[in-house]
Design brief:
heterodimer, A: 545 residues, alpha/beta, Rossmann fold, 4 domains, seven-stranded parallel sheet, 39% helix, B: 848 residues, 6 domains, six-stranded antiparallel sheet, 22 strands
């Protein structure tokens, strides 16, 4: 029994005691293959999954390193069966390779003939492959490069893709590092990506993912297609690119519901890509509109299913995925792995926070007690109405007022789900409300006013959840949400985690109705935040009022 | 038996013992002890004297048992002895095993190298000593006697060449051959004729045994014949030929086989097959009995990986700890929910699956733990009518022991046990899957194989790993005959068991990362394994780490009281080296239900947490405690409600109400253990005027009890006579009476004459109405046909299908196909009568 910081559990989770002197070393060696699942204060939980192990293989680690890491840092003996399993799983990666053959084009080759025999017998593989060139090689239809990778991953034999990339149409792009420089971790992320060819960079909200994208473009120096979640986000990207690179306004096109520009750098929204007209995706031609050298996917964890399908056809182009989390609520992490690429860089929030790039946050749940008459109405409400009822209870208003008053010097965001409630709050607090019907122009105007501190309180609906940049929001008050989604939580937290000019800590309040489903959802949220390593307190409304 | 036969044997040296019994008699007591130790079956019952012992030793069953327990070289030595004539000297055995020295062998034979020869020479005395010790062999080195039963079992014959692949001797193979044919063989082989068959065989045998002459003879053989011999030389020595018994001679031999048959180089063993005589085979083999003689055991083959012995011990200790906790967890589970015993024994697949799920493990592994617990006496069927598997009292004792001792019990059980968990789920003889803990999982070979495999592993340097393939050659050498039945894939039971042994050893922590642990070595050597294991086990901890995400992490095994307390107020989320507990509303409530207070829980967390108790956790405990018990549930038989609290207080204070067991629930409500009736009566008795209340709260109007039955029908009156019939009934009755009367009283004219006529021939039969008319069938038919023609009314006797006789008056309409269709006056309808049922007919009197 040695005195390591790591404990290996039978369900393949790894517990890392972070107060241990060797914890930092240990984290470094296990990070390549184990996915950080929970990072609460004292003991972090990592999970070893086949995808994680294959990510590690893709990054050039071998089974021996993984086993050594476990054995060396584990406090208790590691079950032999687990080590064998790890070695077996890792050995599955790279038995099959996709590559370019001088005469046959795209081919699937193997170093282990029985594996090839096994996969070729699969019904799903048969339509994707052509003639058998020799016992170890089979021709793959070039159009099925993505498909076959997806299917092989599902069969448990992920293929390594050595087929290379087309350079695309060259276009000069340089970073303009005047008065700012890439942060070291951003630099590492870009290098990791470029070295790997294609893949995903995982960085927390506010850690400067856009810059990683820009730097990757500067590396590629070719025409680029950027896919983002919505129009606001598209504008944000454009703004940032103009500011940080040699690209000019005219070189960047926006391809959205309102504008259809195709320029050397084109920013398209997921929504327009997935719009169907007469049963077909109307804007697919965008992918072929230019000879793109790089495709950037913003918020990969939100990538809609049809985009995966298009992406399967784009395997010859370099792909960069940017995200705050690899966790997808639809469980399609495997598709991200096979179609966009393995994880190329990842840093836990806490570490980047410790480096001072994102603001520390104080998370606080305020529990309000419903009045007796509200409790009675709540008890009799229809099940589907219950959440709405307790989430929009009038009692919350007083608490929000008190919180806003407490932080009156700070820039405060109030985030909610229900428009009525938001309108009411806007009225009471005399603050503008941004919701679905607010025009983009109006939104940007209000954001700008908020940025310049003309207004200090802004009430936003879920439309503001993604990719808006509100650098000076130091307080966020959440009054209602979409049933405790973890993804939403990450985004909302991101709102207040952007670096603060004055460096003082951000506050994240959730106002929750006690003894209701609202509280149950809050429990998910609490768990998520605590698992992300944030201090979390629960206080009663009376302590605020 | 052997003893008697031995006495008749002339070959024994005068100085040596003449029989096995005699030799046994001369052995010291220690040798006899050794003999009985190696062959314990001889002790049951204890033989009366040495002659009896010798007889018992020589019985086939006992000798075979002893042979099964020989190692490969000793067995080969015994086989060589069996291939030699009885009473051969040691040198003959050695020559047979390694080939005679300094003799030019047959061109095709591969002689043994000098190193191997030396090894054989070195190992042979040991092998002979073993055979002697087991009393399979007796006599001095100059005249060795294999006991008859062993010789019979091992001697090569045409039907059973054994592992030597040799055939019968020339003498044995020519038994029953005609003297003329023998002379033919002699002639064909180029030998002079001899006076009798015995000398003929001897001459042939001498030819084959003489290396030079035999070689000369074979030199003349056609190439094809030599190739044929090559195919038979290492056995099996049998070949199939169309006509083996045809007396071919050298002259008329046409085929290569016949060339050999003509010279006695192949001898017929049956009409369709030939056999290579032992003497020739030995010549061709260069005098050797075994193609590969293995005087030394093959070394167990270590795998490529060599582990640090210390890492091995700790890995095994970790697994040992897991084994103990897993068995504990499993039995705890079955203690709460004992699964039913199948009718054929064992547990059902579903119960096994459920247990596997609870352990978060696979079914085969779960079956292994179950068998282990069963074997160790910790788990057993409870023997009740509705039989279930449950932990035994020994389990409770076991739980009190230190972990190392608990493991030692499991490991000892496994090592010596015959239960083979890996057979669970495999099809039995009838193709049904064998149930876990079922009756068909015992294999007597299992403990031998387990011990042999671990011993082979122990023979490797510390830290060496090995696969079954690496261990099996050595194991096969040590017990060549004990492999068990082979499977379809050509693997015998021992191969399977070895695989399973290695897997199970790893599961149980006997091996760690594939290498044998020190604690397992102690176990094998019979030392105190628990003492070796104890210091390697992780020390139980008295603290946990509490985290803001409402988890508690026990970074190692916990002291039992702490583990139990924690399991009460939190749910286990993951297990392994550490245990992760999660606090939830439900788990905290469970602790409160179990009688803990919020303050207890706070103190408990405070005391055992190495880190400050996170605020959300304290809040959770308080929040659950705040609501815990706010709603109260109890049982009462009735209640007493009053808007005037003073009145209720008065009732409660009244001593007469004590029997009602009243309790004030609220100022205006009393609960009573007495029922509503009793309460009402008692209150009235006390001078109050209570009113009863319905479930909806309405006042029940109280009236003297007025009972009702369920709906009932009125009883039917019982009259003193039958009811008055109505007209229709009467009319019908009259008609029936009339018809019957007409039939009975009809004045008949007998149409029938002859012997069958009724006795009342002289007058109409009016006196006896029961008398059925009788007439001949032909007369009946004629009379009826006439009646049809004339439209006359007839009187008939009729027997219906039930055999009832009746008389009827009918108006026949037609007679056809054996039936009469007629109007029957009795039933007043047209109907048919079967002719054969009509007993007779009579005409009616016209006057009637």
């Amino acid at each position: 029994m040695n005195d390591g910081p790591l404990i290996v559990q039978s369900d393949k989770t790894l517990l890392l005691e972070i107060d241990h002197p060797k914890a930092a070393d240990c984290r470094r060696v296990i990070a390549p293959f184990a996915e950080l699942e929970r990072a609460p204060e004292h003991v972090h939980t990592y999970r070893v999954t086949p995808l994680g192990l294959w990510n590690a293989r893709a990054a050039g680690h071998d089974a021996e390193q993984v086993v050594d890491a476990l054995v060396n840092y584990s406090r208790y003996p590691v079950p032999h069966a687990l080590l064998v399993d790890i070695a077996d799983t890792m050995a599955r990666y790279g038995r099959l390779k996709l590559s370019k053959h001088p005469t046959h084009g795209l081919v699937l080759t193997t170093t282990d003939r029985p594996v090839l025999e096994e996969v070729l017998r699969s019904k799903k593989i048969i339509p994707l492959v052509g003639a058998r060139v020799d016992p170890d090689t089979v021709v793959v239809h070039p159009s099925e490069r993505g498909q076959i990778k997806q299917v092989l991953l599902k069969l448990g034999w992920p293929a390594e893709d050595f087929a290379g990339y087309v350079d695309g149409e060259a276009h000069p792009i340089e970073l303009e590092q005047d008065g700012w420089t890439l942060r070291p971790y951003q630099q590492q992320a870009v290098e990791g990506f470029w070295h790997g060819g294609s893949g995903v960079v995982v960085l927390p909200c506010g850690a400067g993912k856009t810059l990683v994208g820009a730097a990757a473009m500067a590396e590629a120096k070719s025409t680029t297609l950027i896919l983002v979640t919505n129009t606001v986000s598209a504008r944000q990207w454009k703004h940032e690119l103009v500011k940080r690179t040699t690209l000019t306004e005219d070189e960047i096109g926006e391809y959205s519901g309102t504008r259809k520009e195709i320029r050397p750098v084109t920013i398209a929204t997921y929504q327009v890509m997935t719009t169907k007209r007469k049963g077909t995706y109307a804007h697919l031609e965008l992918f072929d509109a230019r000879n793109w050298g790089l495709v950037v996917y913003d918020e990969v964890h939100l990538l809609p299913a049809p985009v995966f399908k298009f992406t399967a056809d784009l395997q010859a182009r370099r792909r960069l995925g940017l995200t705050a989390t690899l966790v997808r609520e639809d469980g399609r992490e495997g598709d991200v792995f096979s179609l966009i690429g393995p994880k190329r860089f990842d840093a836990p929030w806490k570490e980047i926070e410790a480096q001072g790039y994102i603001a520390p946050a104080d998370c606080c749940e305020v529990r309000v007690t419903l009045t007796d008459s509200e409790r009675l109405s709540y008890a009799t409400a229809e099940p589907e109405e219950r959440y709405r009822f307790c989430a929009t209870t009038a009692t919350k208003r007083r608490v929000v007022e008190a919180l806003v008053k407490k932080h009156e010097k700070d820039q405060t965001l109030i985030i909610g789900q229900y428009i009525d409630q938001l309108d009411e709050l806007g009225e009471v607090l005399d603050a503008p409300v941004i919701k679905g019907e607010t025009s983009n122009a109006q939104r940007e105007k209000l954001f700008e006013a908020f940025r310049t501190k003309e207004i200090s309180v802004l009430v936003v609906s879920k439309v503001a959840n993604f990719s808006i940049d509100l650098p000076e929001a130091t307080v966020a008050i959440q009054v209602s949400g979409t049933f405790g989604s973890r993804q939403e939580e990450a985004q909302r937290l991101g709102r207040v985690l952007r670096p603060k000019a004055d460096g003082h800590s951000a506050h994240f309040y959730s106002v929750v109705a006690r003894d209701t489903v609202d509280q149950d959802f809050a429990a998910h949220r609490q768990r998520f935040l605590a698992e992300q390593g944030y201090a979390y307190r629960i206080i009663d409304a009376d302590d605020v009022l | 038996m052997t003893a008697q036969q031995g006495e008749q044997r002339p070959g024994a040296a005068a100085a040596g013992p003449r029989t096995l019994a005699e030799e046994l008699r001369s052995r010291p007591d220690t040798a006899l002890t050794a003999l009985l130790r190696s062959r314990p079956d001889l002790l049951n019952p204890v033989p009366g004297d040495l002659t009896q012992l010798a007889a018992r030793l020589s019985s086939r069953a006992s000798a075979l048992r002893a042979l099964e327990r020989l190692d490969r070289f000793t067995l080969q030595t015994a086989e060589a002895l069996a291939a030699l004539p009885d009473g051969s000297p040691l040198t003959a055995v050695r020559n047979l095993l390694s080939g005679p020295a300094r003799v030019k062998p047959h061109p095709g034979a591969t002689p043994l190298g000098p190193a191997d020869r030396a090894a054989v020479a070195e190992a042979l005395p040991g092998a002979l000593a073993t055979l002697r010790e087991r009393a399979l062999l007796w006599g001095p080195d100059t005249a060795l006697h294999l006991v008859i039963a062993a010789r019979e079992a091992l001697a090569p014959s045409a039907a059973n060449p054994g592992r030597t692949g040799l055939g019968p001797t020339l003498a044995e193979a020519t038994v029953g051959m005609s003297p003329a044919r023998l002379q033919q063989l002699l002639a064909s082989a180029g030998l002079p004729p001899t006076p009798d068959p015995v000398t003929a065989v001897a001459a042939l045998a001498a030819l084959l045994a003489d290396r030079k002459r035999c070689a000369a003879l074979l030199d003349q053989a056609p190439e094809a014949s030599l190739r044929l011999l090559d195919r038979l030389v290492w056995g099996p020595p049998n070949g199939t030929v169309p006509d083996a018994t045809r007396p071919v001679t050298a002259e008329d031999a046409r085929s290569p086989v016949e060339w050999l048959i003509a010279r006695g180089l192949l001898l017929p063993s049956s009409p369709g097959s030939v056999v290579l005589p032992r003497e020739l085979a030995l010549h061709l083999r260069g005098g050797r009995s075994h193609r590969s003689v293995e005087p030394v055991p093959p070394a167990a083959l270590a795998g490529p990986a060599v582990r640090d012995p210390q890492a091995v011990d700790s890995a095994a200790a970790g697994q040992a700890h897991t084994a103990v906790t897993t068995v504990e967890e499993l039995l705890d589970l079955w203690g709460l929910q004992p699964p039913a015993t199948l009718r054929a024994g064992g547990v059902g697949v579903r119960d096994l699956k459920r247990a596997a799920q609870a352990l978060d493990s696979s079914e085969p592994v779960t079956a292994f733990w179950l068998e282990l617990a069963y074997g160790a006496g910790l788990l057993a069927p409870n023997g009740e009518a509705d039989e279930r598997w449950a932990p035994t009292p020994a389990f409770d004792t076991w739980l009190q022991q230190p972990t190392a001792d608990r493991w030692a019990l499991l490991a000892r059980t496994w090592l010596a046990g015959t239960r083979v968990a890996a057979l669970t789920g495999t099809p039995d003889g009838k193709g049904k899957a064998r149930a876990a803990l079922g009756p068909e999982l015992d294999r007597t070979l299992a403990p031998t194989v387990r011990r042999a495999a671990l011993t082979a592993l122990a023979g490797l340097p510390p830290g060496s790993t090995a696969t079954a393939e690496g261990l099996l050659p050595a194991m096969r050498w040590h017990r060549p005959l004990r492999g068990g039945p082979a499977t379809a894939e050509g693997r015998d039971l021992r191969d399977e068991l070895t695989d399973w042994t290695l897997t199970e050893a790893e599961q149980l922590g006997v091996t760690g990362r594939g290498a044998l642990s020190s604690q397992a070595r102690a176990l094998l050597e019979g030392r105190d394994a628990a003492a070796v294991l104890a210091p390697l086990l992780p020390r139980p901890l008295d603290h946990v780490i509490l985290q803001p995400d409402l988890t508690a992490i026990a970074p190692g095994p916990l002291l039992t009281p702490l583990a139990q307390a924690l399991a009460l107020c939190a749910d286990v989320e993951s297990k392994g080296g550490a245990t992760v507990y999660r606090f939830t509303t439900e788990s905290v409530r469970r602790a409160l239900d179990a009688g803990r207070s919020a303050a207890d829980l706070h103190a408990f967390l405070e005391q055992h947490s190495r880190t400050p108790v996170p605020q959300p956790l304290s809040y959770l405990v308080d929040d659950v405690a705040r609501r815990h018990g706010v709603l109260r549930v109890g049982a009462a038989s009735s209640y007493l409600r009053c808007d005037d609290p003073a009145l209720l207080a008065e009732v409660l204070a009244d001593r007469r109400s004590a029997d009602l067991r009243l309790r004030l629930l609220a100022p205006t409500v009393l609960a009573a253990q007495a029922g509503p009736e009793a309460l009402l009566t008692a209150l009235r008795g006390m001078g109050y005027a209570p009113a009863a209340e319905s479930a909806e709260g309405d006042v029940l109007i109280s009236r003297p009890g007025s009972h009702r039955t369920p709906p009932r029908t009125a009883p039917t009156p019982v009259p003193d006579g039958p009811p008055v019939p109505d007209d229709a009934l009467l009319g019908a009755a009259v008609k029936a009476v009339r018809a019957g009367d007409r039939a009975a009283t009809a004045v008949r004219r007998e149409t029938v004459t002859g012997p069958a006529a009724t006795p009342h021939q002289n007058g109409p039969a009016r006196t006896d109405t029961r008398q059925l008319p009788r007439s001949q069938a032909a007369d009946t038919l004629a009379a009826l046909q006439t009646a049809v023609l004339l439209g006359e009314r007839m009187w008939i006797g009729y027997i219906n299908a039930e055999g009832l006789a009746s008389q009827r008056v009918i108006d026949p309409v037609k007679v056809e196909g054996g039936f009469v269709t007629a109007f029957d006056h009795h039933s007043d309808e047209l109907r048919t009568f079967a002719l054969h049922r009509i007993t007779g007919v009579a005409e009616l009197d016209d006057n009637a």
